[in-house]
Amino acid sequence: MKTAILGGSFNPVHSGHIALAEDVLKLGYVRILFIPTSNPPHKTPAGGATDEDRIEMLNLALKDRKWAEVWGGEIRRGGFSYSIDTVRELKASGIIDSRPGLIIGDDLVEGFSSWKNVDDLARETDIILARRDSGSSVNFPYNCRRLENTLWPYSSTEVRDIITEGTDLKGIVPSAVAVYIELKGLYRDATT
Asked: CA-CA to 28 of 20 to 30 Å: which in 22, 56, 129, 166?
């Protein structure tokens, strides 16, 4: 099954994540694995939601999308989440049976060469480079497929700020996720 991997904090998952995955499907992928990170080595984790909350929000957001699956292996593994370790675990466990697509945002290009075993990662995956803004294309030294994806105006940080401000989330996060955030009182405190 032709599978692409979309990793991230998903803190919270928002409509931009879903739109990006739908754009990747147009490349011929039939399944997108959403993989919430345990502890990203290149970012400081934001608070506001537990690992269980992030997984539950993903499950709610993807419930009716037969092409989408949530894999919580990085959270179960704990520690830093390295893409190469995840790809190899997915292959070894039979969750993926062919060369996967690896979706990364072009905002990660600058630091990509410092990723763990980056040359192996580039050999073992088909890198799909997604646009984060409408600026000029970035210089990326690895083979990749540049995705002309729909641009999304909000980062997860900005979505958390919107929630803290009490602004309506309609269209920003899937409706089931908005209900979950409200019921759990997530992201209401500006210090998380």
From this structure: 56
d(CA 117, CA 42): 14
Buried b (16+ CB within 10 A) or exposed e, 26-42: eeebebbbbbbbbebee
CATH 3.40.50.620 fits 3-152, yes or no: yes
- For every residue of 44-109, DSSP letters joined together read PPP-SS-HHHHHHHHHHHHTT-TTEEE--HHHHH-SB--HHHHHHHHHHTTS--SPPEEEEEGGGH
- What does the pLDDT look like over 119-152, one tens digit per residue? 999 999 999 999 987 666 778 999 999 999 999 9
Instruction: Look at residues 74, 57, 67, 79 and name the one whose alpha carbon lies nearest to residue 7.
Output: 74
Domain-wise residue ranges, the chain: 3-152
CA distance 117 to 41: 13
Q: Is the pTM of this model over 0.90?
A: yes
Per-residue HEC secondary structure of 132-173 comes to CCCCCCCCCCCCEEEECCCCCCCCHHHHHHHHHHCCCCECCE
Query: What is the C-alpha to C-alpha distance for residues 49 and 47, in angstroms, rounded to an integer?
Result: 6
